[in-house]
Design brief:
This protein is mainly β. It is built from no helices and eleven strands.
Length: about 120
């Protein structure tokens, strides 16, 4: 069964850290670009970070640059989002998305999301 599962969310105080995991089963995550998105109540879906499948290049939205780091562990078929210096405005449900195109056919998988709450 093809599945993406996020974990690692929770409640943290401002300035704290969390590490989100995006674990794949049923397919090899190594060849996929992985995007992290988030959605806060009343706000639009926002792209947070992306790591490419081929060369591992990472990209970040300006609001998280210098605080978030995306990485992948191919042996564990997992991608991580390390979030440091968290702010209340980082509160959202975080989703990972795995994407690649194979012979013109897009393959696109989503996880169920994990809640991150930053509050004192």
């Amino acid at each position: 069964q093809v599945q993406l599962v996020e974990s690692g969310g929770g409640l943290v105080q401002p300035g704290g850290s969390l590490r989100l995991s995006c674990a794949a089963s049923g397919f090899n995550l190594n060849y996929y670009a992985i995007d992290w998105f988030r959605q806060a109540p009343g706000k639009e879906h926002e792209g947070v970070s992306c790591i490419s499948g081929r060369d591992g290049n990472a990209y970040y939205v300006d609001s998280v640059k210098g605080r978030f780091t995306v990485s992948r562990d191919n042996a564990k078929n997992t991608v991580y989002l390390q979030m440091n210096s968290l702010k209340p405005e980082d509160t959202a449900v975080y989703y990972c998305n795995a994407y690649r195109v194979v012979t013109g056919t897009p393959l696109d998988y989503w996880g169920q999301g994990t809640q991150v709450t930053v509050s004192s």
